[in-house]
Amino acid sequence: MSSYSSKTPDASGRFAYSAEEDAVWGALFDRQMGALQGKVVPTYLAGVKALGLNRQHVPQIVDIDARLRATTAAGVQGVPAIIPPGRFFALLAERKFPVATFLRRREDMDYIEEPDLFHEVFGHCPLLTDPDYADFIQGFGQQALTLGKGYNWHLFRLFWFTVEFGMIRTSEGLRAYGAGIVSSPSELQHATDGTARMMDFDILSALRTPYRIDIVQPAYFVIQSFAELSGLLDLDFKAAIDEAKAMGDFPPLFEAA
Fold first, then answer.
1. Beta pairing partners, 79
2. What sign for the dihedral angle of Cα 86, 92, 95, 96?
3. Average pLDDT over residues 33-52
4. How many DSSP H helices and E strands does the chain contain?
């Protein structure tokens, strides 16, 4: 059971964060921004600047929402840490990314099992300033809403290997873009030290690849551009998942939990 609780906004939509929470945010921000140099896609760093993220204080959801609306017409909405898949997909379909309102405590700086505000704002939101990435997020949600629950598991695989743990090829080499890499010191080190397996992205392979949430990823899928992501929306997700189910999963690249 979680020891964290979601916060309640005031009448203006702002949340109260303590001086300690500001300090934790600042420490997390400094650590990751230092580590990301030369390892993250430049579009991400441009997004951090566009959103006005800094070390001084925990960012407010209403401010991020306003800046995103002014750039790509995307947005964010505060939610409890875990929401039902249907609600998650519905928000994405509205071009909104769900954001937890609580921040991890100092003792959980290195890892927190449930997504907190740092993971979701620092990890996910900067790339929502890219039109192709924002289009993919919205289109993913729209396609997901048309499919039944029997397709959720494979949809989350696609999300996992792109939005959460994707890598991208740039003119300067491989760079991280997935939020789970960008917001995690251990995952960033593992994904960029040359030891992890890198595979060119194709949707069937991603849909057939099992994953675990409690380990650094043994393999990552690499896209060539964010336009490649948005181009996936031209595919029939239902047909792709049906084909992946018929072909069966690849053997796991990790030991059973």
1. 100
2. positive
3. 97
4. 12, 6
CA distance 220 to 224: 13
What's the rounded mean pLDDT across residues 49-68?
98
SS3 string, 182-193, reads HCCHHHHHHHHC
CA angle in degrees (0–180, nearest 5) for 96-97-98: 115
Long-range contacts of 47-54 (CB under 8 A, 24+ apart): 47/125, 47/126, 47/127, 47/128, 47/129, 47/130, 48/122, 48/126, 50/126, 50/129, 51/125, 51/126, 51/129, 53/29, 53/121, 53/122, 53/125, 53/126, 54/29
- Beta sheet of 219-223, edge-to-edge order: 173-176, 167-170, 219-223, 197-200
pLDDT at 161: 98
CA-CA distance, 239 to 203, in Å (whole number)? 11
Contact between 174 and 198 (Cβ < 8 Å): yes
> Contact at 8 Å (CB) between 249 and 208?
yes
pLDDT of the residue at 255: 83
- The tokens for 70 are 């002014």
Sequence-separated (6 or more) residues with CB below 8 Å from residue 104: 4, 24, 28, 112, 116, 118
* Chain-centre distance for alpha carbon 142: 17
**Could you give the CA distance from residue 139 to residue 207 in angstroms, rounded to a whole number?**
17
If pLDDT is split at 50, 70 and 90, which confidence band does 82 have? confident
